[in-house]
Amino acid sequence: MRFQLRACPLGALLLALLPALEAQAHVGQGDTASGFSAGFLHPLRGLDHLLAMLAVGMWGAQLGTPALWVLPVAFPLVMALGGVAGILAVPLPGSEVAIVLSVVLLGSAIALGGRPPVWIAAALVSFFAIFHGYAHGRELPAQTSALPFCAGFVLATGCIHLSGIGIGFVTRLPHGEVALRAGGAAIGLAGLFLAWQLSAG
Amino acid sequence: MAALGRLIAFSLALVLVAAPAEAHGNWSGGDFYAGLLQPIYHPESLLAALALVLWSTQQEPSAGFLVCAAFTATIALGSSLALLGARIPGAEWGTRAAMLAFGPLAAARLRLPGQLGAALAAAAGLASGAAATAPEAAQITRPVLWTLGLGGGAALLGVYAHQAVWRFQAFWMQIAVRIVGSWITAIGLLVSVLAATRPQP
Fold it and tell me: In this structure, what DSSP letter does residue A92 have?
């Protein structure tokens, strides 16, 4: 089954909505708009979050259906559970290490081009989603409206997944699989760099 | 079909571009229009309704219609009860519960018997109608128009969602519905925990 990207009005709408949402921050929407903006920017400001979630989308596209939708559906659901643990301040040692490890392993999975069963891919992604959600939950500003902030960071997470899936469609081009695997390798190397930074303190 | 999709996306993008200019006007539009727009100011109701109508598009056509009809009728009923001064305990939590019920159902693409779905939709509509109306009740001068607006908005959302999903029966649309269902579930879970643990500003 082949995607018809030219006939994708939902994608066009999402793109059209993004600048409009930012513009609303200037017309007196107060805490709602700033809460949404803060939430939306939260996953975008951490390179480790950004790369890992991009890798989730790319890996889903590389594996094809059903992983194409299972991974981006599973990630936010489990991430929310991690977010709850973070909000409730449940101790979860090693979360920063796990987040960096997710960048390395997901990038490596794309680079190696293996085809694990979908449940293994979903389990791996879900495991790491707990730690990403936990970090978001722990860093949630105390004075921010709950719904706009949560909607913002869930939506941003989803958009990064969709971006990763979009990048993954490079496999439809000649030598696209090689390009995608090279992209995965770059993410894995960036993860190693982040790990080195983390260990250096 | 692709041309129609692009036309709709382009038209809506133009509407969004025009919106900031209207933000400075003083036109209120009356109670019907206020009721129609109320879900935008009460995003929990909007997300609950969105999850419900998206899930209804995955049902058999007759069951999907029954779900949307039950939701529209009971959102008007809940609104009427709130306007009459009746207090529905836990209406806000009912709205969040609707996000947590219909979001996972949409993400899992789970079909339920029509009557069970309609019963769940009725409970969600009652809670959403009361929760969306209660904070505004003192300012509403024409309650019938408000209720018609609120119910009309719910009906419109159902019509648009069904049109979009049935008209564009593309593979990506089925995936999009599941992904949005998972996003709403994640938001609902986080908002519920935050509402329970933190006083909102």
Answer: -
Whether residues B200 and A146 touch (CB distance < 8 A) is answered with yes
pTM (two decimals):
0.79
- Going by the DSSP 8-state scheme, the letter that residue A49 receives in this structure is H
In whole angstroms, give the CA distance from residue A148 to residue A36. 4
The residue to which tokens 């920063």 are assigned? A96
| A140-198 tens-digit pLDDT | 777 667 788 888 889 999 999 999 999 998 888 888 899 999 999 999 999 999 999 88
Beta strand segments in chain B, E = none
Q: Residue B200: which region, alpha, beta or left (left: phi > 0; alpha: psi -120 to 50)?
A: beta
Nearest chain A Cα distance for residue B77, angstroms: 26
Residue B172 near chain A (CB below 8 Å): yes
Dihedral angle sign, alpha carbons of residues A98, A104, A107, A110: negative
Half-sphere exposure in the Cβ direction for B200 (13 Å, CA): 14
